Amino acid sequence: MSYTPVVPLSGYAGWKFLNRTIEKQQAAFVASAEIQRNEDYFREKIGGIKTAEELVSDRRLLTVALGAFGLDDDINNKYFIRKVLEEGTLDTKSLANKLSDKSYLALSEAFGFGDFSTPRTVLSDFADGILAKYEARQFEIAVGNADQAMRLAMTVQRELPELAADDASESTKWYQIIGSPALSEVMRTALGLPDSVGSLNVDQQVNVYKQKTEQIFGSSDPSQFAGAEELDKLLKSYLLRAQLTDTSSISSGSAALQLLQGGTSGNSILSILV
Q1: Assuming Cys at both sites, which of 11, 86, 181, 209 could form a disulfide with 243, CB separation 3.0 to 4.6 Å?
Q2: Which residues contact 130 (CB under 8 A, 6 or more apart)?
Q3: Are 207 and 158 contained in the same domain?
Q4: Cα separation of 16 and 22, whole Å?
């Protein structure tokens, strides 16, 4: 039986609870039978995998490989994943470099099929590194089954500090944030921006994000989120706004249901809508 993460509260209060208990909860999750079976199989077989074709031909190995990079939904896209892996990352024209979602780039780089004559799969510590990523990502998915906002917050907590601490320019970092579904959603919500901002061209989006970030956090540079204090402020803003949106949706839905059922008086209906 698999372990189901405990998230008793939504919003920022739930986030603080999750962070207090995450080590014990993740340990219990990783110890579950399904995770252990996948890990044991990966450890046993991955050292013998020398090509991308071999990897995508073994569904159980591919499940772990994709799961380690948040690409679980691509399990049936074997030709696409094989191409990502075989073209590697050293050529700027490779598929992994062209894709806006840099998870594919990280996957290809980690396995090294297209970059080296001998892939990284033969390294003695390769399985440990991939499985650590697999455990973290799968736990995030399990948390997301209980509260999707928590899952996104965990993704940002893991990815944004590394991106923020990079030597890339301020604008480049914003392009990377916008190119990540999780980072862009959290940032957009935390800044109080409408979903429609995503319909703007990427340069316009960068300008909007910069202006709003400077207005709220005092600086437009994503580098500030390399620090724990500013990162926590960002996640707090995101979780509170996300909770408010969910509460508003639930309230509106309840009001509509009562109207349809015709079970309220005129005065009560008015009070609900107001």
Answers
A1: 11
A2: 42, 46, 64, 65, 68, 110
A3: yes
A4: 10
Residue 137 reports pLDDT greater than 90: yes
**Longest CA–CA separation in the chain, Å:** 76
Residue 166 to residue 163: CA distance in whole angstroms: 5
Residue 73 lies in domain:
11-145
* pLDDT, tens digit (0-9, with 9 covering 90-100), for 157-181: 999 999 999 999 999 999 999 988 8
Task: Please check whether residue 202 is in contact with residue 178, taking contact to mean a CB–CB distance below 8 angstroms.
Answer: yes
Alpha helices in 102-227 (DSSP H): 103-111, 126-146, 148-164, 170-179, 181-190, 202-217
How far is 81 from 58, CA to CA, in rounded Å? 13
- Select the more confidently predicted residue: 17 or 266: 17
Output the pTM of the full model.
0.82
Q: Which are the contacts of 216, defined by CB distance < 8 A and separation ≥ 6?
A: 191, 237
Judge contact between 254 and 273, C-beta under 8 A: no
**Predicted pLDDT at 274:** 29
Instruction: Give the chain's domain count.
Output: 2
User: Residue range 210-238: average pLDDT?
Assistant: 96
